[in-house]
Amino acid sequence: MKPLILSLTLMAGGLTSGLVLAQNEAEIAQHVTGNTFEMRRMGMRMQITFLPDGETAIQGPMGQGAGQWSLSGNELCMTMPRGGDRCGSVSISETGSLLTADGNEMTPVN
Question: Using CA atoms, how far apart are residues 49 and 5, in angstroms rounded to an integer?
């Protein structure tokens, strides 16, 4: 994967105030692997599941798709079917949401 160093702009939503619970690679990987998160992209809700093999399963109003994800330190990179590569630092809030450095949020579904 050839990542672009961009914030995860595919995640649009308000940042919730809350403590950040995890910031290292092992904790973030454990938190996301096998779990589904909801995010907004261009005002539409999407769900993304981070599969253990580095693949993603994506479901949204435009249908289903697949992509890839990787983690290096606290930088999460994702390849989206129609959105290209996106990378940015993430942390985990006290509510279990993934928070990006630019203030966006991915909310856990399960």
Answer: 22
Give the residue ranges of DSSP H helices in 46-86: none
The CA distance from 2 to 12, in Å, is: 23
pTM: 0.75
What are 11-55's pLDDT values in tens digits?
333 333 455 555 789 999 999 999 999 988 778 898 999 999 999
Confirm whether 7 is domain-assigned.
no
State the Cα–Cα distance between residues 83 and 12, nearest whole angstrom. 14
Question: How many domains, in total, are found in the chain?
Answer: 1
The length of the chain in residues reads 110
In a domain, 2, yes or no: no
